[in-house]
Amino acid sequence: MTSLWTLTDMARAMRAETVGAPAAEITGISIDTRTIAKGEAFFALTDVRDGHDFVEAALKGGATVAVVARSKRDRFPADAPLLVVDDVLDGLRDLARAARARMSAKVIAVTGSVGKTGTKEALRLALSADGETHASVASYNNHWGVPLSLARCPADVKYAVFEIGMNHAGEITPLTKLVRPHVAIVTTVEAVHLEYFGSIEKIADAKAEIFLGLEPGGAAVINRDNSQYERLAAAAKAAGVKNIVRFGEDPSCEARLIRFALHAGMSSVHADILGHEVHYKLGAPGRHLVNNSLAVLAAASLAGADLALAALALGKLRAPAGRGARFALHIDGGNALLIDESYNANPASMAAAIALLGQAEVGKLPNGSCGRRIAVLGDMLELGSDGEKLHRALAADLEAARIDLVYCSGPLMRSLFQALPSDRRGGYAGTAAELEPAVLGAVRPGDAVMVKGSFGSKMAPIVKALVKTYAGTPAPEADAGT
Question: pTM for the complete prediction?
Answer without folding.
Answer: 0.87
